[in-house]
């Protein structure tokens, strides 16, 4: 009960704060804030999420209509403010929904190993961690061991078949060198405006038939923001924030995608995806040979 009530106050407070800055929408914001609070207390998560989405769409349409009757500068500023408030509200709602379905005590069998595309666990929902105990520490230790043994710089829990919101990384990729990061229940607060392209690989996407000078993983260009601000918890459950830039920001976003069930080729352009399509098909055939099951997804269906 404590987690439900505590979570519900955050979007309610932020919405009411936004309403003070935008008088024209204050009634809608206050009303939706009250409904969010009431729905949360009685466990109506689906209802308040639907109301929030409806409010967001209605508020945008309303601002567009009123914008024609105002000066361009004032109307645009208020419209952008409402859009920003909606974005923050939806982020808070997502956080509450995740916390409402926690993982509980972790259960997994050692030794762990990296699972390969197209294993369905790479697309499964990853649960919010709410128990910070020795089992979590064991999982973190094993993830670092696997990451270093496979020459990786980052690893997400679903990549070892444990569907919880946990990632580890070390930009140097070597034990005893660089700094190790453990991020529990991370979320992105803000993306930077600048973006760049970089060749990314992934431990869940090994090259099956390697040439003499070929990388061990399937690599291709992915475009991402160059910086992010994130919130997370440490191994003890303490909350903290980080501003990540350049390579660290890219590592984090790659691993965060895993926590969202997104794979790096989902972010590639069709032209770039075509360059690795045959390698992905090899992994799909390998999965079918190893499991005797049809591949849960096929890259050939993406055009």
Automatic annotation (TrEMBL):
Keywords: Chloroplast, Hydrolase, Iron, Metal-binding, Plastid, Protein biosynthesis, Transit peptide. InterPro entries: Peptide_deformylase, Peptide_deformylase_sf. Pfam families: Pep_deformylase. CDD domains: Pep_deformylase. Its EC number is 3.5.1.88. It catalyses: N-terminal N-formyl-L-methionyl-[peptide] + H2O = N-terminal L-methionyl-[peptide] + formate. The keyword Chloroplast applies. It is an enzyme of class 3 (hydrolase). The keyword NADP does not apply. GO terms for biological process: translation. Its main location: plastid. It comes from the Eukaryota. It is found in: Plastid, Chloroplast. GO terms for molecular function: metal ion binding; peptide deformylase activity. Belongs to the polypeptide deformylase family. PANTHER family: PEPTIDE DEFORMYLASE. Removes the formyl group from the N-terminal Met of newly synthesized proteins. This is Peptide deformylase. It comes from Ceratodon purpureus (Fire moss).
């Amino acid at each position: 009960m404590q987690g439900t009530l505590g979570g519900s106050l955050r979007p309610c407070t932020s919405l009411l704060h936004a309403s003070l800055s935008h008088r024209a929408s204050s009634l809608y914001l206050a009303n939706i804030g009250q409904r969010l609070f009431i729905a949360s207390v009685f466990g109506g998560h689906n209802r308040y999420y639907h109301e929030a989405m409806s409010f967001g769409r209605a508020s945008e349409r309303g601002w567009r209509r009123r914008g024609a009757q105002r000066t361009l500068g004032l109307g645009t500023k208020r419209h952008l403010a409402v859009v920003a408030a909606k974005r923050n509200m939806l982020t808070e709602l997502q956080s509450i929904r995740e916390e409402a379905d926690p993982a509980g005590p972790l259960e997994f069998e050692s030794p762990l190993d990296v699972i390969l595309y197209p294993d369905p666990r790479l697309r499964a929902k990853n649960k919010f961690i709410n128990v910070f105990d020795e089992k979590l520490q064991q999982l973190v230790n094993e993830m670092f061991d696997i990451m270093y043994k496979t020459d990786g710089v980052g690893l997400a829990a679903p990549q070892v078949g444990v569907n919880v919101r946990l990632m580890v990384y070390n930009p140097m990729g070597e034990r005893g060198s660089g700094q190790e990061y453990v991020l529990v229940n991370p979320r992105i607060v803000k993306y930077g405006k600048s973006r760049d392209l970089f060749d990314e690989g992934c431990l869940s996407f090994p090259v099956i038939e390697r040439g003499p000078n070929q990388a061990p993983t399937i690599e291709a260009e992915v475009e991402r923001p160059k910086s992010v601000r994130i919130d997370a918890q440490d191994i003890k459950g303490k909350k903290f924030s980080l501003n990540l830039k350049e390579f660290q920001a890219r590592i984090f976003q790659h691993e965060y995608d895993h926590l969202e069930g997104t794979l790096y080729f989902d972010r590639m352009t069709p032209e770039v995806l075509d360059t690795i399509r045959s390698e992905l098909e090899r992994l799909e055939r390998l999965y079918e040979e190893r499991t005797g099951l049809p591949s849960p997804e096929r890259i050939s269906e993406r055009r």
